[in-house]
Design goal:
Length: 294
């Protein structure tokens, strides 16, 4: 693999506190120098590698959930290390999956590495090319109802390939809302509810997707855990406090819409811990085979 352009990075390398050894496709040296080590992708011959990325506040919330401040940037304090890592995770994703609520709350966002960390857009693009990926990740939006904002910026980007995964009733709603501007990639993956496993299989078979990054929101994350469709989790622990009040809109935690049973418990296995300032960056392997709804 040709060595990509050295990234600028977020200002200083990550400090490595714990890092496990893996076998597979690793990062080029210029990226390892910033990340403080390697992130190895497993073999994806039979099915895509599925990983998530979230930022969580010191008190366990993932959103302030007030107009203009629903996204993770406010939770991280717009930390440059968190944004750079998000760019890296997108750079190695063939597809990024996002829930309808996330798209509605961030209608101007594009789920590409260059959008979140423009300074290293060229380096991320060269990494994608070196690993044999399309220029930008497939933008995949999950909606049962088909209630997506047709005016969202991503639908106006000719350079981005969009897939909308929905149900039969959602397809009808999308046709009504978008009309002739309906995205070409409408994928029906269920009658009343989305079949996440079937969606991943079809992305793999029909779009050549080897790696899938989930960026939200908490209900999509809960659906992934319930379906056993998550291999690894990248979680930024922020020093920011969010809080909550009975008088304010609900401020969600990492997983919503899924109540897990305490016996047997669903667990993760810690693979690596990095630090930058007061932020911690965790990578964990998910054991979703034992996930049980309460």
């Amino acid at each position: 693999m040709t060595e990509p352009t050295a990234p600028h990075g977020p200002g200083a390398p990550f400090e490595v506190l714990l890092d496990g050894a893996d076998a597979g496709q690793g990062l080029p040296e210029v990226f390892r120098a910033v990340y403080g080590g390697d992130w190895v992708l497993p073999d994806t011959t039979g099915a895509p590698y599925r990983y998530s990325n979230f930022v969580m506040s010191h008190d366990g919330r993932v959103s302030f959930n007030v107009p203009g401040h629903e996204g993770g940037g406010d939770v991280s304090g717009f930390d440059p290390h968190d944004q750079w890592l998000m760019g890296l995770l997108r750079a190695r994703a063939d597809a990024v999956t996002v829930g309808a609520n996330t798209l509605r709350s961030e209608p101007d966002h594009l789920w590409t590495p260059g959008f979140i960390f423009p300074r290293d857009g060229d380096a991320f693009a060269e990494l994608r090319a070196a690993e044999g990926r399309r220029p930008s990740p497939l933008q995949v939006f999950l909606t049962r109802s088909g209630d997506l904002p047709a005016s969202a910026a991503v639908f106006a980007e000719d350079d981005l390939e969009v897939v909308v995964a929905t149900t039969e009733r959602g397809r009808v709603r999308l046709e009504e809302r978008f009309g002739s501007a309906l995205p070409a990639g409408v994928l029906v993956a269920g009658e009343q509810d989305l079949d996440i496993a079937a969606l991943h299989q079809r992305l793999h078979a029909e779009h050549g997707v080897r790696t899938v990054l989930c960026e939200g929101g908490p209900r999509v994350y809960g659906a992934l855990v319930a379906a056993g469709e998550l291999d690894e989790e990248f979680l930024t622990l922020s020093p920011v406090l969010v809080g909550g009040s009975d008088d304010a809109a609900h401020r969600p935690g990492l997983i919503e819409g899924l109540a897990l049973s305490p016996t047997p418990s669903t667990r993760t296995a810690l693979r690596s811990v990095r630090r930058a300032g007061d932020h911690l960056f965790l990578r964990s392997a998910y054991d979703t085979d034992r996930a049980q709804a309460g």
